[in-house]
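Page 37, continued from 36.
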């Protein structure tokens, strides 16, 4: 039984949400074990879905940054550094995607996914702990990390497809 005082703590809530979001990898691995035959024909769609979700997360992070800094503009704390930070964020997401597309080899795939997940987790940490966003913003981003885990887990740890025995 978890004490109610612990559940009311925002930091604990955000960390539990982050751990839940990383379970998308586990669900992706389970999915690859359940539907072994569909993995090979659907692999290109898993890659496409993974890249779309990653880019949506990058644009969503930029939107959060823009909204946060746009609201600060009305208080007089707006500067050129805010806009530069948004452009750097977009360059990180799009640049990581381009590098993954150009330099992706089966031996390096785990490193790229680690870098992608690290960027997603750091973005979530920035949204929740630095920007102190609303609950909706954080949970939307956590949901994207969870959805990103589906195709990633399926691609990274595919089940061995058993060949059908001839009778």
């Amino acid at each position: 039984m978890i004490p109610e005082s612990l559940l009311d703590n925002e930091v604990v809530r955000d960390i539990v949400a982050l751990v839940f979001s990383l379970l998308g990898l586990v669900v992706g691995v389970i999915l690859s074990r359940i539907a072994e035959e569909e993995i090979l024909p659907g692999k290109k769609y898993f890659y496409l879905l993974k890249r779309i979700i990653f880019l949506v997360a990058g644009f969503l992070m930029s939107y959060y940054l823009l909204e946060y800094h746009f609201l600060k503009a009305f208080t007089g704390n707006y500067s050129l550094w805010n806009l530069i930070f948004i452009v750097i964020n977009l360059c990180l997401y799009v640049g990581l995607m381009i590098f993954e597309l150009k330099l992706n080899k089966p031996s390096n795939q785990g490193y790229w996914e680690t870098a992608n997940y690290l960027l997603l987790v750091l973005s979530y940490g920035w949204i929740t702990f630095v920007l102190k966003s609303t609950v909706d913003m954080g949970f939307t981003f956590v949901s994207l990390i969870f959805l990103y885990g589906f195709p990633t887990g399926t691609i990274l740890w595919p089940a061995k497809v058993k060949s059908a025995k001839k009778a």
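Residues 12-156 form one domain. Flag for discussion at group meeting. The chain has one domain: 12-156.
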